[in-house]
From TrEMBL:
Gene Ontology MF annotations: heme binding; molybdopterin cofactor binding; sulfite oxidase activity
Keyword Methyltransferase: no
GO biological process entries: sulfur compound metabolic process
Keywords annotated in UniProt: Membrane, Transmembrane, Transmembrane helix
Transmembrane feature ranges: 53-72, 79-98, 104-126, 147-165
SUPFAM superfamilies: E set domains, Oxidoreductase molybdopterin-binding domain
Oxidoreductase molybdopterin-binding domain span: 222-370
Identification of the protein by name: Molybdopterin-dependent oxidoreductase
Provenance organism: Georgenia yuyongxinii
Length: 494
């Protein structure tokens, strides 16, 4: 109880003071960074995009267990429980200090709350009435209960005052989300052709609405970036270091483009993929101003939260719509999708290109620097692999015999989809009908009208790219550079 109270107090203090991550958040993020990638994979598998909720619940459960231990210990031996609380506090403080958005100033809420918690614990569990003379003697030597509670109150009070002061002096980060004055695009995105969306129930719509867009990142709580102080720094192997404020960015001629984004952790048939129109400044224009030096072959983009991605320089300087994006589907970026500015690069998995809350572009070489996930066993380069998915019918369910609508999406960003085939029960591949798409950077819907006969059947899909490459049926896992294999759905007809 008391330990729990201390954690809540520390979190409130951190939040209120705006000193950075609170203890739960810091422990969670340190945990995420230290987690081996197989465990992360398992977490994403088990909990999907709820993996962070699961981690948060896990940490709270572990803390509650430790709190009980602390209470029992304190009851058994005076001060031993307080020591447990102090140990936990120091651990949390260490995690807080080690976070890129934490540091030493972020640790004081944890330390203050730990001190208060330990004092309250000792005070509450102090023997109420000494039962014998010897005990009385010993207890006189220890602090008495009232003093301890007063002390805890004092520490808490001082911490609260400190929090108010530090908030008023603006020591923290601002809350995310004030609307941005997005300009009209100088280069507008084409309207999707009427045939882009087949309007089939259960099929992913051509445009993924922002609230439904998948979210993958290592941030336990969404970083809060103040648009007024946001600045992009372009440095490293460049002739000129370039700095760009948000006002400057919004004053540029912006491009709006459709790009389908997908995650390397997407399993065959998975849903870590979405399509949106993005508004932003082509990255090549910023890089042209900085003038990369000969020999540079990579841009290491860095987020305010310490995440980094390695993107080939050539991909950011060719003609494609690699954007420093400020808009998503006609509004500013939602906080969890990178507000106020993120990268979006057609043709590459998100972990090597789509840095959210981006703050830096460091021009460097693959030989000299590695990115967040590369250090954890993933590939430094990761172009998207051609994929296709069956959305309807869903597996299992009873279908009526007769014509069954089989439909889904297929993607091969920056290459384009040329054909999609479907086969039933390992039979002949039959061409599906392709929906339209704005260009080769987005997914395409497809539909196959299947004359279904009663019985158990399997449906499989495979795509072919405009480069002639046929999606391989060979199964590969997501590590290190993306899954392969055909999506298969088993159904029961009649
Ligand atoms: N700062 C930051 N940016 C990040 C990540 C991250 O963990 N931190 N994850 C990347 C990964 S793995 C993917 S797939 C995309 C997902 O973008 P979304 O959450 O907007 O769909 O963001 C990328 N950008
Ligand atoms: Mo990802």
């Amino acid at each position: 109880m008391v330990t729990g109270g201390a954690v809540v107090l520390a979190d409130l203090l951190a939040r209120f003071a705006g000193t950075g991550p609170g203890p739960v958040e810091a422990v969670a993020e340190a945990f995420i960074d230290l987690t081996p990638s197989w465990l992360k994979e398992l977490a994403i598998d088990l909990f999907g995009t709820n993996d962070k909720v699961a981690l948060g619940v896990g940490i709270v459960v572990v803390m509650a267990a430790l709190a009980v231990v602390a209470g029992l210990e304190e009851r058994r031996r005076r001060y031993s429980g307080a020591m447990v609380v102090a140990f936990l506090g120091l651990l949390a403080a260490g995690a807080t200090a080690s976070r890129p958005d934490g540091g030493l100033v972020a640790t004081w809420p944890v330390l203050a709350a730990t001190a208060a918690g330990a004092m309250v614990l000792v005070a509450l569990l102090a023997p109420a009435r000494p039962v014998d003379a010897e005990r009385a003697m010993r207890d006189r030597r220890t602090l008495d209960r009232r003093r301890l509670l007063q002390g805890a109150g004092l520490v808490t009070g001082a911490a609260l005052v400190g929090a108010v002061v530090s908030r008023m002096t603006g020591a923290g980060t601002a809350a995310a989300g004030p609307p941005l004055a997005l300009p009209d695009p100088a280069v507008p995105a084409p309207a999707p052709p009427p045939g882009a969306d087949l309007g089939i129930e259960g099929l992913a719509p051509y445009r993924t609405p922002n609230p439904e867009f998948y979210r993958i990142d290592t941030a336990f709580f969404v970083p809060r970036v103040d648009p007024a102080t946001w600045e992009l720094r372009v440095h490293g192997m460049v002739e000129h270091e370039v700095r760009l404020t948000l006002d400057e960015l919004l004053g540029e001629k912006l491009t709006e483009a459709w790009v389908t984004l997908c995650c390397v952790s997407n399993e065959v048939g998975g849903h870590l993929v979405g399509n949106a129109s993005w508004l932003g400044l082509p990255v090549r224009e910023v890089l042209a101003r900085a003038r990369p030096l000969p020999g540079a072959d990579m841009v290491l983009s860095r987020s305010v939260d310490g995440f980094t991605a390695s993107t080939p320089l050539e991909v950011l300087t060719d003609e494609r719509n690699a954007l420093l994006a400020v808009g998503m589907n006609g509004t500013e970026l939602p906080p969890e999708h990178g507000y106020p500015v993120r990268l979006v690069v057609p043709g590459l998995y998100g972990f090597v290109s789509a840095t959210k809350w981006v703050a830096e572009l460091e021009v460097t070489r693959f030989a000299d620097a590695t990115a967040y996930w590369t250090d954890r066993g993933w590939s430094p380069r990761a172009p998207v692999k051609i994929s296709s998915r069956i959305d309807v019918p869903r597996g299992g369910g009873d279908l009526a015999a007769g014509e069954v609508v089989v439909a889904g999406v297929a993607w091969a960003q920056h290459t384009g989809i040329a054909a999609v085939d479907v086969r039933v029960d390992d039979g002949e591949w039959r061409p599906a009908e392709l929906a339209d798409a704005v260009d080769v950077d987005t997914w395409r819907q497809w539909v196959y009208r299947w004359p279904a006969e009663p019985g158990k059947h399997s449906l499989e899909v495979r795509a072919t790219g405009l480069d002639g490459v046929v999606q391989t049926g060979e199964r590969a896992g997501v590590v290190p550079d993306g899954a392969t294999g055909w999506h298969r759905v088993d159904v029961q007809v009649g």
